[in-house]
Amino acid sequence: MPTAINLTLLLLISLQIGEIWSVCNITALSSVDAITLNKDGKSEYHYGVNFNLMDGYRVIYVTKANVTELCEGIVKFFGKLEELNLIDNNISSVEKNAFQHVPKLKKLSLAVNNLSVLKSGHVNMVKTLEVLYLTSNRLEIIDDDAFDDMINLKRIYLNRNKLKTISSSWFKNCSKLEVIDFTNNEITTIPPRAFTNLAPSFQDDFVQYKLSYNQITEISPDVLDGNKEFLILRLDFNRLKELPVVVFKNLAQVNSLVLNSNQIACLDKEILDYLKVHTISFHLVNNPIECACLDKFDNFVNDNAMQASFYYNTTFNCKLLKQMPVLIN
Ligand SMILES: *[C@@H]1O[C@H](CO)[C@@H](O)[C@H](O)[C@H]1NC(C)=O
Ligand SMILES: *[C@@H]1O[C@H](CO)[C@@H](O)[C@H](O)[C@H]1NC(C)=O
Ligand SMILES: *[C@@H]1O[C@H](CO)[C@@H](O)[C@H](O)[C@H]1NC(C)=O
Ligand SMILES: *[C@@H]1O[C@H](CO)[C@@H](O)[C@H](O)[C@H]1NC(C)=O
Ligand SMILES: *[C@@H]1O[C@H](CO)[C@@H](O)[C@H](O)[C@H]1NC(C)=O
Ligand SMILES: *[C@@H]1O[C@H](CO)[C@@H](O)[C@H](O)[C@H]1NC(C)=O
């Protein structure tokens, strides 16, 4: 039977080992200002408190702590934690298993930090997570399996980063996803089968995929591959000049397609024919639609029983352009 002295020794030894094994320095978090919610929902302000002593709180909000690295087990055994916001802290790296043993964590925000790489094991080990904010970092590289098996994830915000591509391998086994936000990145193309891992958990639910304010010039003809209507696709404020006709053959997958503020001059007759038979809401305002093409659209909408709700206008002043010859004469 171990004596008390032996136990103390054992403890000291494991502390030593702990120190040897943990290269990650969390001393920076030993004195932070934070807002927390206690278990009764009462908010409390803490100044210069040791982060490790916040393990009883439901919501923790830490900003401007200048923590450059999130170490493994940083919130280990924060058993009541439901919401963790580490915003504007200059975090530039996350160790695998940083967020382990947080059985109730539903919302994690690492917004406004300095992350450039995201790997599997950084966030996707938190199976309870429903909302994830990675907004306003410098994310450039996200591994194909970084979000795998996030079975409860509903909303993910990756807006305002430096992503140049999206991967069709992301979001495997993330069956509850409702909102994916890539607004304000540097994405240039949409690859084949980009949305293949997405499907709403209930019929009549839609997944909103936001790619607004990127630099997209190209959509792969094979971008849509399914026959289920589930997608709301926002591609406004990009640089699309045209759309592959093939995309529209699979339009059944899309419920709403937003192409406002691109550089589209006209649409193929074949595309209009697809729109005629599909119930989607199709948005094409603020594009440089040629005046002749605008007339074509008007005639088409008047002559056909359109299934789609088709919203369009042009950045040209066609009325003025039409009057010009008259004025000149
Ligand atoms: C850990 O960080 C603190 C403060 O940021 C610093 O004083 C200390 O030297 C660091 N320790 C190691 C081992 O890097
Ligand atoms: C933030 O922390 C880093 C590394 O610990 C240090 O080099 C830097 O000076 C700190 N910045 C400020 C503003 O305290
Ligand atoms: C952020 O961290 C980097 C690298 O550790 C450091 O050079 C920089 O001063 C930090 N910035 C701020 C605002 O603390
Ligand atoms: C982000 O990290 C880089 C180095 O990794 C550093 O040069 C830069 O100062 C950091 N940015 C901020 C805002 O601290
Ligand atoms: C999805 O992820 C859960 C949680 O990790 C796992 O138990 C399940 O086997 C996975 N399902 C598939 C189809 O991979
Ligand atoms: C096009 O329509 C949108 C939405 O109705 C409107 O905000 C915009 O001002 C219109 N543009 C022109 C050039 O009429």
TrEMBL record:
Q: Does the keyword Signal apply?
A: yes
Kindly state which keywords UniProt assigns to this record, in alphabetical order: Leucine-rich repeat, Repeat, Signal
According to the record, the signal peptide region is 1-22
Q: Which domain of life is it from?
A: Eukaryota
- Please name the InterPro entries in this protein's record: Leu-rich_rpt, Leu-rich_rpt_typical-subtyp, LRR_dom_sf
Q: Which PANTHER family match?
A: IG(IMMUNOGLOBULIN) AND LRR(LEUCINE RICH REPEAT) DOMAINS (PTHR24366), RE50361P (PTHR24366:SF170)
Q: What is this protein called?
A: Uncharacterized protein
Q: Which organism is it from?
A: Henosepilachna vigintioctopunctata
